[in-house]
Amino acid sequence: MTQSLHNRTFRVGSNDYTIEMVNGLVRRHDLAGQVGYDDNVIKIDDALCKSRMHEVMVHELTHAMFEEAGYADDDKIGSEDEVNRLGKVLHGMLRDNDFGFIRGEDRGRPAEILDAFLQDIDTHLRATPDPLPYIRETMWRYWAYKEGMEHVDE
Ligand SMILES: [Zn+2]
User: Fold this and answer.
1) CA of 30 to the centre of ligand 1 (A)
2) Fewer CB within 10 Å, N- or C-terminus of the chain?
3) Ligand 1 centre from 58 Cα, in Å?
4) Last residue of one domain, picked from the residues 69, 97, 125
């Protein structure tokens, strides 16, 4: 349970935050989670149940959102109470809806994307005596696109 979150990174604004599962955070510091803006590490107690762990993760990411939005020194916006309320709603919203479609929004419509990949394969077929590695690579990129993975555009 704990390994699935450990070392995961989340981009908030222009910073990447890394999750670090920590033993005894609640016991020693009475904290379920903590976000650091110097090392961009989000520490979460590894003894929490899965739903609480995820809620704490979203809570700390909500703190990070206020930080990245420039509210770091604002004592009126981004209070613990606001982060708490927003974090709980955000956790439920992210869990109970599928946002996968958003990932591909800057890559054009699916049919156009498929056409572009097929064009690529066609070019390889015509230009190379041994097109198989190129076709394999192109199909791998298409699969990665379909899965919404990040390295699809390189
Ligand atoms: Zn907090």
Assistant:
1) 12
2) C
3) 10
4) 97
pTM: 0.68
- Report pLDDT digits (tens) over 75-91: 889 999 999 999 999 99
* C-alpha 76 – ligand 1 centre gap (Å): 15
List the domain range (segments joined by +) for residue 37: 9-97
Q: Which two tokens stand for residue 34?
A: 């903590």
Ligand 1 centre to CA of 59 (Å) is 6
Domain count of the fold of the chain: 2
Name the token pair of 115: 């056409």
Q: How far is the CA of 5 from the centre of ligand 1 (A)?
A: 19
Structure tokens at 57: 């993760």
Q: Which helix (H) or strand (E) holds 80?
A: helix 80-96
Answer yes or no: is 24 within a domain. yes
Lowest mean pLDDT segment, chosen from 8-17, 44-53, 75-84, 93-102: 93-102
Q: Is the pLDDT of residue 34 over 60?
A: yes
Q: Could you tell me the distance, in angstroms and rounded to a whole number, from the CA of residue 99 to the centre of ligand 1?
A: 25
Judgement on whether residues 87 and 107 belong to the same structural domain of the protein: no
